[in-house]
Every structure is written in C-alpha cells, then in structure tokens.
Amino acid sequence: MKRTMPRIVAFLAVGVLATAVSVGAGADRAAAGSTGPRPPGPTTPPPGSGADGEAWAWTQLTSRGTQLRYVSTDSSQSCPTVRYTFAGVRNPFPLHRVSTPMGSQFPTTVCELGVPLTASEAVLEQSTVQAATLHPANRQLPLPRWTRTTRPGRIGVIGDSGCSVPVTGPVQNCASGWPFARISTALANGNPDLVIHVGDYLYREDPARANDKAANPGCRTSDDAARWDCVVADFFRPAEALLAKAPVALTRGNHESCNAAGQGGAGGAWFRYLADDLRANGSCSTFTPPAVLRAGTLNLANVDSSAADRSDNGSLANQAVFTRQFEAVNQDAGRPQHANQDYFLFTHKPVWMVKAAGSMPTAVEWATPVLDAAVAGTSLHALRDNVRLVMSGHIHLYQMLDFNTARPPQLTSGTSGGPLDNGPDDTKVVGKAIGTPPQPVNQSITQEQNPPGGIGVFGFSDLRDTAGSWGLAFRDVNGAVRGQTCALSTSVTNKSFSCH
Question: How crowded is residue 136: how many other Cβ atoms within 10 Å of its Cβ?
Fold first, then answer.
C-alpha cells in the first residue's frame, strides 16, 4: 500500500496476445523473460555429502493448474521427488528445476511440478530432500479438494501482510506487534480449501531498522533488503501454517515493484519465487498479462495492478494497458464453457473502494480511478456479468462495498499485517456516487476499532460456498467473526450482499 491442468488459455495483455503453455512432464520449463537454456535437470548429490540448508515447499494455483513449488538453500542444487496418488495409482515424480543460485540475493535452487487435478496425498520423499530443515516438516503438501465440476467450499482472503520497515519514517514492531503469523494460524485452523493473497508481501525496505533481527540472521542489514532471507522473514515463516494447509493463489502488490534496473530487488524476488510464471534470471517486468486460475467451476482472474497509479494521486496514466487486461478477462469470462461459471477478479489495488467520505453529496475519495476508467474503456464498458466479486488490498482496511447493480461488489482485505489505516464513516459512504458511470453505493461495511471513521482491525476475509451462494464474514486475528455476516445475491444484474 502507501507507500484444469494442462489446458492452454490465451490472454491478451499490453497489446500482445500471450499464450500460456502447459508444463511439460519431463524437461525444465523455460522461464518467462529469460534468455538462453535452462540449467540441467535434477542432479544427484555426490556420495557422502551431508544435508545442509533450509527448504520451503508449498502448493500454488496458477494459470497452468496446480503447481508444487520448492525453494532450498542446500548446496546440492537438486530437486526432490514427490509421490502422489492419481486415478488410483501412486507414483513418484521428480520436480523440475527452474533456477539455481544467483548472487547473494538469490542463494537458492527453485523447483516446481505441475500436478493433475484430483491428485491426492502428495508427500515429498525423504531420501530426495537434501536440505537439513524442511517446511513443512511432515513433507505433506496440500492439494485441491475440488474437481472440474465443483469449487472450493471455503476461501480465506488475506493481503498487505508484511512487516513495515521503511527506509525513513515509523517502523512496525515486527517482534511482537506484527499479527501475520497469528492470522495465518487462525486461518489455517479453519481448514480452508484455498487461500488468496491480494498482494504486498515484502515490506522490509531497510532490515537494519527492524526489531526482530535476532530471528533473521540473513535479514539484518540495509543491503539484505529483498534477499531470500528477508522473503522468508516477511512471508514464508509467518505464513507457514497456512502454506501447509491449503493451496494459495497470489497476486502482486506495489511493494513487489521493479527497481530502476529491472533486475533483482523485491520485483525480482516476486518473479523468482511467487509469480504465476517463475523466472531464473532475476528480471522484473512492470506489466504482466492477466492470468485466469481455474478452481473447478470458480474462475479467479488475476490482474497485476501493482503499477497502477504509482503515487495514489488519481493519475490515469496506463489506462489503456489495463483496459486491454480487463478486456482479456471479459473475453475469457464470455467463452461458452465459462459463461455460467462465477469469476472473482483479484488484483492488488481496489477498483471502487471508498477511503473517505464527507457530508456533502460529492465529498468522497475512492481508489483507484485508473482501474475504473480501464473497466469503462472495455467493449462492454463494464466487467462481464458473471464477474461476481472484485477482491483487493492496498488500503489497510476491511471493507465490503456494493452497488446493487450489475457492477460487482468490491471486497478490500488489506488487514493481514501492515500498519492499519483509518476507515470512512460508512453512513456517509452510502449514497455517494462513484465509478464510471457514477453509481451510488448501496452498502458499505468497514471494520474499525472505534467507528465511525476509526482505525481498522487486523484479520482476514472468509468466503464460503453455501448451497451454491457465497457467504462472507470478516474474522479477526483469533479467527472470531467480527461484525455482520453476509450472503452474495445470485442475481447478475443486482449484485449485492444481504447482511445480518
């Protein structure tokens, strides 16, 4: 802030028709934006070598289906083998190497493997793990519990989770006041089928100013910013409980932006470890194509808005770029096989979230005008009717806002770690006309410690499929429901939440 499987899907972005290619079963996959050949496949450690280093493994939903990902600092530069059951048969499959160590920022080997939908019981084989320490310690990786004809029953939505350690200005209490680990545990205890992160993972711009350096030996100096150890400190370690529980779907935040060189930095870390399509060369791109992730009959349209309105001052620069991205989402949602399926758009910066509102009819501040203008610039001048919900972060608040029109509700979930913002007076938000064309807000529910207009509340959003409709609740750091629970209407022309 401030500061299902190998099915080929075509995406239109930044004026170019980009085609996503399914992962091959045997060879290393070429990285987007990289040049030259990939490193060779998995190697066998020399006889007598001992385990060393630390490894993290997780399951990520991507535009190519379910991916098992593995990052290790061990010296073998090898990839482990996973054994899973599919179609009643249990077999071992080696992960494919994506990248090998690259300088001090990326002292890691990165591996991945595409896994077919309805596979189960994925376990890394102990004899093939060369790291001395593995997360998760039980070597079990969560897999989707949905099929092609069903969808996730429970989805947790988090965002803006890192601990804020800027170069100048106030520093967050990372040692005891940062709640992301508690939120991760509370979310994991609820047994979600899927976790969506709406961006901003890496906040340690100057690790030397953090007060938890003792717990992070490789993330202690100013030069350590965006190194792998800081990625672990800001994301992997506090998220360990939820990464062991459910697959994740990730979108990029503005804290993962490219540096001036377009190489290394937080943006380079994003593309090396967390992006939809991983890279081996440390490069970073300002704009990336939208990616549609299939979760059975639920489609998640991932739009990278990290570079939208960089200064948050209402700029409409790059409107055409995002119009092409939303046009691609609409085209995918309009395909005959998807026309009757739900789409959730998840993108870091909100399209219609209200930050402040006064008593006068026009006294309203909302984010982000360039994204709203981009939606209005599509051939439909709107998001397609089956786009049921927009999920974002960036503003460090929880807010559900709807219009009771064909425009989808805006859910903002930026409350999972970073310093909280002050919210608006909801009574002054209702009735204010925002967006293009202007539409009055039908309902606004913002979680604040001392409403109206108080500071926000740490926690996460909880979406549940109940008899074919979506229920929504906000849960605090302990997992307790706070405020009203809501149900999304099934109408595509009058999209609103009924709350009580």
Answer: 17
**pLDDT greater than 50 at residue 140:** yes
CB 163 within 8 A of CB 178: yes
432 and 361 Cβ atoms separated by less than 8 Å:
yes
Neighbours of 385 (CB within 10 A): 18
Q: Which residues sit opposite 72 in a β-bridge? A: 55, 109
Question: Strand runs (DSSP E) across 212-341, as ranges?
Answer: 248-250, 291-295, 298-302
Q: Examine the pLDDT at 415 and tell me if it is beyond 60.
A: yes
| Residue 230, phi then psi, degrees to nearest 5 | -75, -30
* More reliable by pLDDT, 3 or 323: 323
Q: Tally the C-alpha atoms within 13 A of residue 307's C-alpha that lie toward its C-beta.
A: 18
**Alpha-carbon distance 369 to 309, whole Å?**
8
Hunting for tokens 């990616």 — which residue is that? 291
DSSP letters spanning 71-133: EE--TT----EEEEEETTEEEEEEPEEEE--BTTTB--EEEEEEE-TT-EEEEE-GGG---SE
Question: If you average pLDDT over every residue of the chain, what do you get?
Answer: 91
The mean per-residue pLDDT over the stretch 355-383 comes to 94
Q: Is the pLDDT of residue 130 over 90?
A: yes
Q: What are phi and psi of 264, to 5 degrees?
A: 70, -155
For residue 498, give the amino acid letter: S
Bridge partners (DSSP) of residue 448 are: 456
Tell me if 337 sits within 8 A of 394, measured CB to CB.
Answer: no
Q: How distant, in Å, are the alpha carbons of 34, 206, 288, 308 from that of 226?
A: 20, 9, 20, 22
Pairing mode, strands 109-115 and 96-99:
antiparallel
Whole-number Å distance between alpha carbons of 379 and 374 = 11
Q: How far apart are the C-alpha atoms of 108 and 6, rounded to whole Å? A: 27
| pLDDT confidence tier of residue 215, bands split at 50, 70 and 90 | very high
What pLDDT is recorded for position 467?
87
Q: Find, among 261, 258, 260, the residue nearest to 269 by Cα.
A: 258
Averaged pLDDT for residues 270-274: 98
Are 441 and 417 a contacting pair, CB within 8 Å?
A: no
Collect all residues with Cβ–Cβ distance below 8 Å to 148 and sequence separation of at least 6.
4, 117, 296, 297
The distance from CA 97 to its chain's CA centroid, rounded to whole angstroms, is: 23
Q: Kindly report the CA angle at 454 between 453 and 456, in degrees rounded to 5? A: 115
pLDDT at 120 over 90: yes
The percent helix, strand, coil of the chain (3-state, each to 5) is: 15, 30, 55
* Mean pLDDT of the region 84-89: 98
